[in-house]
Amino acid sequence: LKSVLRTSRLVTKLDDELKDKNFIFCAMKDVCLRLLIFEVVIGASCAFAPLLLRNSNGNSYNNGLSMAGGEGGDTEWSKALRESEGGGPNAFEKELKMKGLFQGKSGPANPKMTANAKLVDWLAEEGDVYLKDESTWGEAPHPMAISTETVDEITNESSGRGLLARRSINDGDELLIIPLRLCLTKPSAREALGKDALPSDINEFLAIACQLIHEKYVLGDKSFWKPYIDVLPEVNEVNPSFTWSDEDLSFLKGSPVIAATQSMQMKLRREYDDLLGKDGALCDRFPNRFPRKHFTFENWEWAFTMLFSRAIRLRDLKEGEALAMVPYADLINHSSFSRAYIDARESGDWLFKNGDEEVILYADRGYRKMEQIYISYGPKSNADLLLLYGFALERNPYNSVDVTVSIAAPPSTSTGSEDGDETSSVDPLAEKKRTFLDAVGRSKTVDFPCYADRYPTEMLEYLRLMMMTEEDTRGKDLSEFDYSRTISAANEAAVLYSVIDAVKRQLSLFPNSEEEDAVIIKDKTLFRLFSYNQRMAVRHRRNEKRLLKRTVASLEKQIRNRGLDTMEELTRADGSTLGEVLPGEADKLGMKQRTALEERLEKMGLPIDLK
């Protein structure tokens, strides 16, 4: 009590004597208040500690006294105090090793743990990033620690490195701050490889890919970013589908992911040839900076594996959004249920800004000690995740399957049969529909994502146009209709049935059923004989089939509820929803130029065409 009163009097005296020196006063008052709180806490924790008595033999025993809270003298604030003090150097890591959550519990040093430690030291030395688990003056213990191995909670598949909570974390807590100058960005790539080689208008994916190869393979141990490069995984630790072998891809037969994967593979090869590989490209023009022995397509594929799976789009930078490879932050794994996103801000506090920028992350919910920390990579379907990140989720609210719809191809010049009768399959409005689609800038063949319990309204709008008949038009032009609303009962029934037809056709593309996939997965011994990629493929195709079957069930229920199943002889146009590619809209390989997946990725800020 004497200490408390003495400190309190000091604060009051400072208030009187330094009131004209506001800044100094606030700082000194803050220090004194911290001392006051510290003495109160320590004094109280000692005063209310359970009393230890000694028996006649000199042994200590507890007299049984405890606080009213029933926690044996430990209140919530005293627990928080002990947690905030940390457990001493590497205490959490030692606890992880005891629990088996670190690889290599004994024997020689684990290379991954050594690389983790070097990354932490590098961040502290070069960026003044405090990641230690003990508190120091003005710094609380860092709330997270690197785990060398994490696993998916449902499938038990490895998900590589991750970050775990060292202690309890509250919603809104600051989790990390990384200076932007430690990140790999387009400016850092141009600085490293020369602005004459990488012009200002070069795509940022291409620029950072070149720097990744330069730092890892050309500079090696001399690279400033070596501690960060050393924790980046190899391609076979990530396994995005665009790196899969043909044998592994065959396990996805029937899935729209194959088309997107093949498109990605071709575009990566084309971009490599244009920028680096062909005659007169960078490897020829600047052989010292871009040596061919290091700037190979294999290393290019590794660089894009890193970019697609780890790069973060920072949207709140002073000069607009930019792509960045952020050390340490990119170790955090994805959860589709997380609301946490990594972003940037100007460095400094509310009073002083130093002009620099930093990457910041706050907790979106509370975490218990030892719980894995998650962020969101965005609202991505399993097709997106498999293509770019090499995994698919069992529970994903954003999962969808692309379904192709199109207007029927124009009839051939022969409009009649051998006996002179005209074919009944020609849509008399087909040409007007194609003209209307051209006028509004829509393709005649479109992929739409279908979800387990819903489908996009754009799909209904498109199909309402496709299923219009002359009776529906009532003499009006097609542009006069509002396709966001029902045109007619017959038209609406035709639309919903056409979606069912399209979904069932997509299901028919798979060589086996969802039930057969379930049997394969259930036989754990057999399933483990498959490679990681093949197991992911089986799980993914099964989930696609389940989703499509639920879509059909939902549509059939909607048709019944709206009384559209009782209408007979519904007049409908001959529009096709069977994914028919129109003449002139297929490339020489017979594939659509762009898939719905590619369109979604471009909207996410990831340009698949790269240029």
Provide the descriptors you would attach to this structure in a database record.
611 residues, alpha+beta, 3-stranded antiparallel sheet
What does this structure look like?
The protein is α+β, with helices and mostly antiparallel strands and 611 residues long. Helix content is 42%, strand content 11%. The protein has 22 helices and 13 strands. The strands form 6 sheets. It has a 3-stranded antiparallel β-sheet with strand order 5-10-9, with no helix packed on it. It has a two-stranded antiparallel sheet with strand order 1-2. The chain is globular and about 80 Å long. It starts with a helix and ends in an 8-residue tail after the last helix. Residues 18-29, 35-74, 413-424 and 576-593 have low confidence and may be disordered.
Q: Looking across the biggest beta sheet, what order are the strands in?
A: 5-10-9
The unreliable regions are: 18-29, 35-74, 413-424, 576-593
Mean pLDDT score, rounded? 79
What fraction strand?
Answer: 5-15%
**Shape summary:** globular
Query: Total helix count?
Result: 22
Strand segment tally: 13
Q: Could you describe the largest sheet, including whether it forms a barrel?
A: 3 strands, antiparallel
Residue share in helix = 40-55%
| Rg value | 32 Å
- Class by alpha and beta content: alpha+beta
Gap between N and C termini = 71 Å
